[in-house]
Amino acid sequence: MLRYALRQLISLGLSLLVASLLIFLVVELVPGDPATFMLGTGAQPDTIAALRQQLGLDLPLPVRYLHWLGGILQGDLGHSFTYKTPISQIMLDRMQVSLPLALMSLMLAILVAFPIGIHAAANRGKASDTAVMGVTQIGISLPNFWFAMLLVLVFAARLRWFPAGGFPGWSHPAAALKSLLLPAIALALPQAAILARVLRSALIETLDQDYIRTARAKGLTQGQALRRHALRNAMIPVLTIMGMQFSFLLAGAIIIENVFFLPGIGRLIFQAITQRDLIVVQSAVLVLVAAVILITFLVDLAYALVDPRLRRR
């Protein structure tokens, strides 16, 4: 198990290095001069030159990359020109919104998907299975931003049960959770539909295995065989989807954060792009990529726990 974890850690480090280089090149090669954009077209050339020197834009591209990478290795993500604040502090503040939102969304998706997927697999070919598959197809097809606006219209504007947007901060935990509930539901709906379908397919494939027939022959009911044997062995594709979903919920909630005016990481990246605050874009995207790679690493470890054969590789 230790050797397996070490190999995955080395792969994680190499992936991060390659990702940092790609992120830096993509952002740096965007057309236009950030200093000119920040100061406006009417700024004096000497003022623009001073700002370029302050931002390090006058240095060669490889030198800028090494400076940026060296700062990251020391825990320094840089300093935002727009917010006049260290980027690490901005990221911590925004993560207090994005991380709980992603966790709430994934938990809601799991709570909905597992009972539905298990029920559909246990009743495959029946009317309830067909109904579940139809409902999940609708859930996958609905755009989450449209569903989010529908939730705002019904539960915020008309019923006034939840706030329409904004985030009060964690000094008021109940109000903070209440403000995150509607966006979490909007994000969880399509993820629950996808997870339910994957779980159903994995369980149906597992239920056809010989050891399940043996368990049934020993007197277990279909439900008992499903819960005791099939569910664990069907978890590898489900864990893959859950890891991908959490990565998406953490890094890809930019539309929902803008619909609900949530000060999360996705909205930070959107604002930094419009303001041409490139150092914020680079560092924030790298943090998100690192989070996705870390989640993938944890999912790989979960594979080894679920399937002991992987530990011997």
UniProtKB/TrEMBL annotation:
Protein name: Peptide/nickel transport system permease protein
Sections of the chain in a coiled coil: none
UniProt-listed PROSITE patterns: ABC_TM1 (PS50928)
Cross-referenced PANTHER family: DIPEPTIDE TRANSPORT SYSTEM PERMEASE PROTEIN DPPB-RELATED
Membrane-spanning segments: 101-122, 142-161, 181-199, 236-261, 281-306
GO MF annotation terms: dipeptide transmembrane transporter activity
InterPro entries: BPD_transp_1_N, MetI-like, MetI-like_sf
Record membrane topology: Multi-pass membrane protein
Pfam families from the UniProt entry: BPD_transp_1, BPD_transp_1_N
Domain ABC transmembrane type-1 per the UniProt entry, residue ranges: 95-299
Protein's organism: Paracoccus sulfuroxidans
Lineage, opening ranks: Bacteria, Pseudomonadati, Pseudomonadota, Alphaproteobacteria, Rhodobacterales
